[in-house]
Specification:
This is Peptidase S10. The chain is of the alpha/beta class and 546 residues long. The chain is built from 16 helices and 16 strands. The chain is globular. 44% of the residues are buried.
């Protein structure tokens, strides 16, 4: 009996796992697909919940002065009101050595647009201490690339933090957060506000003068972000808007404002490529002529729609031809409304070439010279490989940030991409916009903070965000005269990424240095000074032969 009892105990101990599960574990058996998914999830590279920081040292010389700095590549953990982590935002910061918590040294937060773009474009090409060398509007040669110290860095004026939007670069949602929690006008601005507040708290920058620097859709983000930060107790000293689009309402099909917005950019592009019959000496002259025509006869003609007389239509078409280089016949057949893709294809039709979108100084060749639209954007193709390769090498081997996660070139590449364009406007007690216009938010921030300075920087040859559209958006903020003097415009002979043109980069650095000095002096003064009159005047551009 003792032997039989021991045998029973031994049998129970060695009973197959499946039999034990049936007896005591009520969990259902997993099939192979579930096991494989669990293993794949465990092996997936995820963003860290705990904040990372990899630091390295560098130095750059600006105007003969050596500036040693600390570069930090790391993550900021965004949390909800209960403290639960919701996202990890990747950043790269450059701080002048000797900067301590509580410093009054300025700090600027940079970001690109998209929406859904990471910030390696501004990081690699503009005002960081290291920069990819670029030249005239031509294809950047394959590797090795010319990347090194940037004598036009803004480090002499401000510390810098380059932030990647959630879902882009190395930034990711955490835990059970969904992409929709961040993929939207207001959701995106909220994430950036939390990240900036987190950085300011972690590194003791609440008492530093603070600036935003956004490019493209990043300018729309800046309008909402400036208001959100101010509403949360963080008043800004300044906002830089580079290549702006702050009002998406004008881009709805069937509205005529977009054609008005583009006309001066068409004129500038036709001037550059020598397509004007009576070409002025400089681009600023033809741009001003196009501005006056756009808000006068052209606006009136479009407003009449199909009821325009044949005589007025022909008169407007002839003047448009003189400004854009397109034939009157083509303009009449287009109902005086020329979409961007058609202009890119039609301007140089006789040469079988097309012009770029991000920068219309670039020219490309399509396989179908008779097509309606360019097959790609030559101005993007010419630079993308160099920027992507340079960032990946720099982040890994110089900044020392190593991860198994891929650096997403766009949040649109990931699952779950759908952007919520609705926006809660602060105008007149609120109200939701279906197509966002955050110039309204920026205006509210400027009215609430009379010391807030705004600098709008524009490229003559930017066909992605035309400068006349920016002038229209910012010109309808309904600011009082005392507030209007806090708004400054500058223009450069370049495209969307104005800093690609080395000549423009030099001028941009000069303009930014003066503007930072003015913004800081305003904060220390009882009466904000009036910006120099020359800063608001279009600068004379430079073109090239076709």
């Amino acid at each position: 009996m003792r032997f039989g009892y021991a045998a029973l105990l031994l049998a129970a101990a060695t009973m197959p796992a499946q039999a034990q599960d049936k007896a005591g574990d009520k969990r259902p058996a997993r099939n192979n697909a579930e096991v494989q998914k669990e293993e794949a999830d465990a092996a997936t590279a995820n963003a860290p919940v705990e904040e990372r920081a990899e630091t390295s040292k560098g130095a750059v010389t600006v105007a003969g002065k050596r500036l040693p700095y600390t570069a930090t590549a790391g993550t900021l953990t965004i949390r909800d009101i209960e403290g639960k982590p919701t996202a990890s935002m990747f950043y790269t910061a450059y701080t002048l050595d000797g900067t301590k918590p509580g410093t009054k040294r300025p700090i600027t937060y940079f970001y690109n647009g998209g929406p859904g773009s990471p910030t390696f474009w501004l990081h690699m090409g503009s005002f960081a201490p290291m920069r990819l060398q670029t030249g005239s509007p031509e294809f950047i040669r394959p590797a090795p690339y010319d990347f090194g110290p940037n004598p036009y860095t803004l480090l002499d004026k401000t510390d810098m933090v380059f932030l990647d939007a959630i879902g882009a670069g190395y930034s990711r949602p955490l835990g059970d957060s969904k992409p929709s929690d961040f993929y939207g006008t207001d959701e995106d601005a909220d994430a950036f506000a939390k990240a900036i507040i987190r950085y300011s708290t972690k590194f003791g920058r609440w008492n530093s003068p603070k600036f935003l620097f956004g490019e493209s859709y990043g300018t729309l983000r800046s309008g909402a972000l400036a208001y959100q930060l101010q509403d949360r107790g963080m008043a800004l000293n300044g906002v830089v808007l580079l290549s702006s689009i702050m009002n998406y309402g004008y881009r709805q099909p069937g509205l005529d404002q977009v054609y008005l917005n583009y006309l001066p950019s068409y004129a500038a592009t036709a001037w550059y490529h020598n397509r004007l019959p009576n070409r002025p000496a400089d681009v600023a002259t033809v741009v001003q002529q196009a501005r006056e025509f756009a808000v006068g006869p052209y606006m009136s003609a479009l407003a009449k729609g199909q009821n325009i007389s044949a005589e007025e239509r022909d008169t407007v078409a002839r003047r448009m031809s003189e400004l854009t280089g397109l034939s009157p016949d083509f303009l009449i057949r287009s109902n005086l409304r020329v979409d961007l893709a058609r202009f890119q294809k039609e301007l140089l039709r006789g040469t079988r070439q097309t012009v770029g979108r991000f920068d219309s100084r670039y020219v490309g060749v399509d396989s179908d010279a008779a097509g309606e639209r360019p097959e790609s954007d030559v101005s993007s193709d010419a630079i993308s490989g160099a920027f992507i390769a340079t960032f990946n090498d720099y982040a890994t081997h110089t900044l020392g940030y190593k991860t198994d996660m891929p650096y997403r070139l766009s949040a649109r590449d990931a699952k779950g991409w759908t952007w919520n364009w609705k926006h809660d406007s602060p105008l007149r007690g609120g109200g939701q916009q279906n197509n966002p216009n955050t110039a309204i938010d920026l205006a509210a921030a400027m009215r609430g903070n009379p010391y807030l300075q705004v600098l709008s920087m524009n490229g003559w040859y930017d066909m992605a965000t035309p400068f006349f559209g920016t002038e229209n958006d910012l010109g309808h903020m309904m600011l009082e005269p005392t507030q209007q003097r806090n708004l400054t415009f500058t223009y450069y002979p370049a495209g969307h990424m104005t800093y690609l043109n080395p000549e423009a980069l030099v001028t941009m650095k000069r303009d930014l240095s003066a503007w930072y000095d003015r913004a800081l002096s305003v904060a220390r003064s009882d009466t904000p000074p009036v910006p120099p009159s020359t800063s608001a005047a279009p600068a004379a551009g430079q073109g090239g032969p076709n």
